[in-house]
Structures are given as structure tokens and as C-alpha cells.
Write a structure and sequence with these properties.
Radius of gyration: 18 Å
Strand content: under 5%
Order of helices and strands: HH
Number of helices: 2
Shape: flat
Helix content: over 70%
Length: about 80
């Protein structure tokens, strides 16, 4: 198996595991449905917000670092 096919297979497997985890374990996470204040006194709202934005922030940092290192090697 080539490295690209192996990588694609790993990504598909990880995606399937994450999807199953969200489907079956997600309903047991107590995240409130409503809130009158944005990030009010409920810490679960902050946790939910962090969980939503964390993957995007990690990818943004990884891509920024990769571009920074690429630029540093070209100079």
C-alpha cells in the first residue's frame, strides 16, 4: 500500500471513529441549550465554545507555522 493510500485510509478511519463517538457519546455531554448571557455564569457554555473553535485554531496555527518555516528555509 502506498503512503498516500495509507494516509487516506487513516483519515477515513479516524473520521469514522470520531463520527461514531459524536453520535453515541455526544448526547451524554450536558451542554445547556439556552442561555441569556453570552458565556454567562455557566462554564459549560465556555467549554462548548472551546470545543467548536479548537480544531480551527489548531489548523490555523499548524498552517501558519508551516508557511513560516517554509519561508525561513527559502531565505
Amino acid at each position: 500500500m502506498t503512503t498516500q493510500a495509507g494516509f487516506v485510509l487513516k483519515v477515513l478511519l479516524l473520521s469514522a471513529v470520531l463520527s461514531i463517538l459524536i453520535k453515541y457519546a455526544g448526547p451524554y455531554i450536558p451542554i445547556p441549550v439556552t442561555g441569556t448571557m453570552f458565556l454567562g455564569n455557566d462554564p459549560l457554555q465556555a467549554i462548548a465554545l472551546i470545543l467548536v473553535f479548537l480544531p480551527t485554531l489548531i489548523m490555523a496555527f499548524a498552517l501558519w507555522r508551516r508557511a513560516y518555516l517554509y519561508k525561513a528555509t527559502r531565505d
